[in-house]
Fold this protein.
Amino acid sequence: MADAMIAAALAARERSYAAYSRFRVGACVRCERGTLHAGCNVENAAYPEGVCAEAGAISAMVLSGGRRIEAVVIAGGGGAPCMPCGGCRQKIREFAGPDTPIRVVDDTGTVLLERSLAELLPDSFGPDSLL
Ligand code: THU
């Protein structure tokens, strides 16, 4: 399953629309049904309107009926790991638990880093905070 997630993230990265940064990103989330959902970054001439790959993958999951994120893979370019931005960490938090694994791979699919959501977003605010 991890390999399938990496393959899906890499395929999504190929579809990226990174017209301004040229920084292609693909992401894949696995939901509670075991289904994989992919997304890519989509930039915009009005720069702040661009969306991250993780956001696209989460939207695809929600659209298909998934409500829990069991694992995340993010595929960036070569060099430094493409870490999820703060906003994406919070978006993942909405649907994931503290132990949810987040793997960052390069453009060949090599795993560069693995962290839990709690490591990337400690002491977080989430749906349970509103109860
Ligand atoms: N980006 C993502 O899609 N995900 C990340 O985890 C980090 C950054 C995108 C946003 C923008 O299109 C480009 O990478 C450069 O910041």
Notes: DSSP finds four helices and five strands in the chain. The radius of gyration is 14 Å.
